[in-house]
């Protein structure tokens, strides 16, 4: 696959804590479990397995957090696309309520890991605001706030006046506030998880792309591009939006869309006080949602969809820079210091997918744009399942890998849908 442009530096690469030492795998050996992918799910799984006395080895094609885990907006948002009542209607009372509880706890997992392991991660937990840009969106967020509040979450609806004040823009009709949400420096968080996993006994090898996966009588054989291989009883694939051809049909079971982001120069104190003055993070109800926050250096970050293809130059971020000016006219002629993007793994039903296509092989895929919390919590659940065999630990039941019909046409289809939404999504494009 083509590399994102420019590869470095993103805002996060420029401000992250130092990377841990993760030398390439240079000799063959054995492991209790081999984990492919050093993003949030792979690292969380490794950490929680190591804490149970299981010896995992993580193989990463590039470096810790290279993919979406180091290229996202750093918003820690609990929940899924579906609200609690939707999940109960879809899966039944017991399974639906269990999935809702899991989804509602994902932000707790992130901030709990940061505190427990004293991770060197700039973070803030003042809540997430979802702004509604249409009357239909306003009804939607009202229902969402009511459902989560009914389950005990610190959630409430916001009228237009309070939404305007807390966001620093008059572009929304209202919204809701979920006090469980927050923000992290996402690459620092990935690197912190890696250090914690190493301290617990996990081994991580960077620059060790996996090229072969074969099941034999003595277990799974995992081969890397350098020629070194590992044998293990179990293999866990955690590659999400950067999934390749390692397992049949897996890459074709998702749409790996790019999420584009821009970050301004550090804002003056006056401007900081006029935008997200209480430190919330925000995304909205648009089909092509916008998300924005201030980082720990006082820069305004805004993200959204861009071209489906890999970017070719700064012009591919120009629409986001225009949106910043429309949302926050008080910024004037602001300077943009950083532009970057990362892939999001989207499944057909907008739910995380787990697969166990053969004994000893487990697959997690489908971060759905909420990967910071979702994949951190998923790693813990996978580790419990691997360690105990308790299927109740998994938030969703494993299903067969299912290739999207006419997958090659989905890129064309999604590109057309993106263009349509831009024309009909509230006049911000």
From TrEMBL:
Q: Which Pfam family, any one, appears in the UniProt record?
A: DAO
Keywords (alphabetical) are: Oxidoreductase
Domain FAD dependent oxidoreductase, by residue range, is: 32-384
Superkingdom classification of source: Bacteria
Q: Which GO terms describe its cellular component?
A: cytoplasm
Q: Do you know which InterPro entries this protein is assigned to? A: FAD-dep_OxRdtase, FAD/NAD-bd_sf
One annotated GO molecular function is:
oxidoreductase activity
Gene3D superfamilies named in the record? D-Amino Acid Oxidase, subunit A, domain 2, FAD/NAD(P)-binding domain
Under which name does UniProt file this protein?
FAD-binding oxidoreductase
Q: Which organism is it from?
A: Methylobacterium soli
């Amino acid at each position: 696959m083509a590399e994102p442009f420019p590869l470095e530096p993103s805002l996060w690469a420029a401000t992250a804590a130092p990377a841990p030492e993760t030398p390439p795998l240079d000799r063959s050996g054995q492991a209790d479990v081999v984990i492919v992918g050093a993003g949030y799910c792979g690292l969380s799984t490794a950490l929680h397995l190591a804490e149970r006395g299981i010896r995992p080895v993580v193989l990463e094609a590039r470096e810790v957090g290279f993919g979406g885990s180091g290229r996202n907006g750093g918003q820690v948002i609990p929940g899924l696309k579906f609200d609690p009542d939707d999940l109960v209607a879809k899966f039944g009372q017991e399974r639906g309520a269990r999935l809702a509880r899991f989804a509602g706890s994902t932000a707790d997992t992130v901030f709990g890991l940061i505190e427990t392991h004293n991770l060197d991660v700039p973070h803030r937990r003042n809540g997430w605001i979802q702004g509604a840009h249409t009357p239909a969106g306003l009804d939607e967020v009202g229902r969402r706030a009511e459902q989560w509040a009914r389950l005990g979450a610190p959630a409430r609806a916001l009228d237009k006046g309070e939404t305007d004040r807390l966001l620093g823009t008059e572009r929304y009709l209202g919204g809701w506030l979920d006090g469980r949400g927050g923000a992290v420096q996402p690459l620092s968080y990935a690197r912190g998880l890696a250090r914690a996993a190493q301290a617990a006994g996990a081994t991580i090898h960077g620059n060790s792309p996996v090229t072969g996966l074969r099941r034999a009588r003595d277990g799974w054989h995992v081969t890397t591009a350098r020629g070194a291989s590992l044998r293990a009883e179990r293999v866990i694939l955690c590659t999400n939006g950067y999934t390749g051809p390692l397992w049949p049909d897996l890459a074709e079971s998702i749409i790996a869309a790019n999420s584009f982001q821009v970050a301004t120069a550090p804002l003056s104190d006056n401007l900081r006080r006029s935008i997200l003055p209480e430190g919330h993070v925000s995304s909205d109800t648009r089909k092509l949602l916008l998300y924005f926050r201030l980082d720990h250096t006082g820069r305004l970050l805004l993200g959204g969809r861009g071209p489906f293809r890999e970017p070719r130059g700064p012009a591919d971020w120009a629409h986001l820079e225009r949106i910043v000016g429309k949302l926050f006219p008080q910024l004037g002629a602001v300077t943009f210091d950083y532009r970057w993007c990362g892939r999001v793994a989207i499944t057909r039903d907008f739910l995380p997918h787990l697969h166990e296509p053969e004994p000893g092989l487990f697959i997690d895929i489908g971060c759905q744009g909420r990967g910071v919390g979702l994949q951190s919590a998923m790693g813990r659940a996978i580790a419990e399942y691997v360690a105990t065999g308790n299927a109740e630990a998994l938030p969703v039941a494993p299903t067969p890998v299912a290739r999207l019909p006419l997958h090659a046409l989905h890129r064309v289809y999604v590109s057309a849908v993106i263009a349509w939404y831009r024309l009909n999504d509230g006049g911000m494009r």
